[in-house]
Amino acid sequence: MISLFPSSRALVLAFGLVLAAVSEGSYWLTPAAVAQVTVGYSNPIFVSSFHGVEQRRGRREQFSFSVAGINVRPDDGTLMYDNNTIWQINDPEKPFSLRVSEEGPRLNLQDARIMTRSASVQRTERVFVQISGPAADSLQSVFAADVRQRQEVLVPNLLISVFEP
Amino acid sequence: MIAMHPAAAWSQSAAVTLTEAVGTNITDVNGGGFSIVSDGSLRHQGPLNAVVPIDSVDRARIVINDVVLMNGVPLAVQEQVESGERRANTLSPDLVNASMDLGDQNNVAVGIGGQVPTYVKLGGILESQRSVVMSGQSFTTFPDNKPSVFSRSILP
């Protein structure tokens, strides 16, 4: 039995940031300098589970019958014998031996039950930036070019762990 | 102008697998057998052996770490009982009336042995396995082309 429960969650945040380039000596907005920055965020999560039960059964039968005798005979007087034959001593005055081994049958039974359960979760968090507008060409980085930023800026600590929500 | 700038991506995954196996392995022999050997001193006129039907079978019991894997008669063996196939090919009870003729011998030789129909092997398996796999990866991309809200120079 296989069951799959995909689920996804996507959250897209978008906001517009209107940047205005302020012309030197003037506080009037210049229409040609407007740019829009859109930040997108997605966080799809896929969860799957599996539950399987396997049953293995085996049965093997082996029949065997062996007789080794000296100075013995079947009690019905015939020379035919099988595993139901009753034996007697042929000449009581002489040594005799009789060995009978019967496996009717040797039965080998194997039974195994294997249960498997598995669960997995996977998520991918993605942040992307889209810049549009007439002033896109003139937009500069919000970070200083010569200053190395702290690691927290590159990898925000607001990530949601799949192990500890 | 529209420019797409993939800024960052993080990926995490985890998987847990639990496997449990329970099994038994039983070997049973029906019929059995016997052996009887004499140097001629054994005096017995009757039958040497008898075929005796068996109407019940002992339980097979398999326990591993206090877990009972088997406690009863296997179905295939029980079917032999119900169908009348279960039996023992064994020495005759009439042998209790046999006598020894010592004559002028100083010693005699008689050998008797037997096999009974029963289980000859009882085995079991009890296995549990748990596997946990976790992985994660992340990457950040800062494009060279302007405009960008990130600076190329801050890359590690």
Instruction: Note the total helix count of chain A.
Output: 1
The largest interface is: A-B, 77 and 72 residues
Mean pLDDT of chain A: 73
Please outline the major beta sheet of chain B: 3 strands, antiparallel
In percent, how much strand structure appears in the residues of chain A? over 45%
End-to-end Cα distance of chain A, whole Å, is 30 Å
Structural class of chain B: mainly beta
Strand proportion of chain B, as a percent range, falls in over 45%
List SSEs of chain B in N-to-C order: EEEEEHEEEE
What is the mean predicted local confidence, pLDDT of chain B?
Answer: 86
Helix content of chain B: under 10%
Count of distinct strands of chain A: 6
Biggest sheet features of chain A: 4 strands, antiparallel
The computed structural class of chain A is mainly beta
Number of strands of chain B: 9
Describe this structure in words.
The complex is a heterodimer of chains A (165) and B (156). Mean pLDDT of chain A is 73; it is low at 1-27 and 151-165. Chain A is an all-beta fold. In chain A, the strands form two sheets. Chain A has a four-stranded antiparallel beta sheet, with no helix packed on it. Chain A contains one helix and six strands, in the order ββββββα. With 156 residues, chain B is mainly beta. Chain B is built from one helix and nine strands. Chain B has one helix at 75-82; strands at 2-38, 42-43, 49-53, 60-64, 67-72, 87-91, 99-100, 110-115, 119-140. Chain B has a three-stranded antiparallel beta sheet, with no helix packed on it. A two-stranded antiparallel sheet of chain B has the order 2-7. In chain B, strands 3-6 form a two-stranded antiparallel sheet. The relative contact order of chain B is 0.38. Residues 143-156 of chain B have low confidence and may be disordered. The chains are: A mainly beta (165), B mainly beta (156). Chains A and B meet through strand 3, strand 5 and strand 6 of A and strand 1, strand 2, strand 3 and strand 9 of B. Strand 6 (96-132) of chain A pairs antiparallel with strand 1 of chain B.
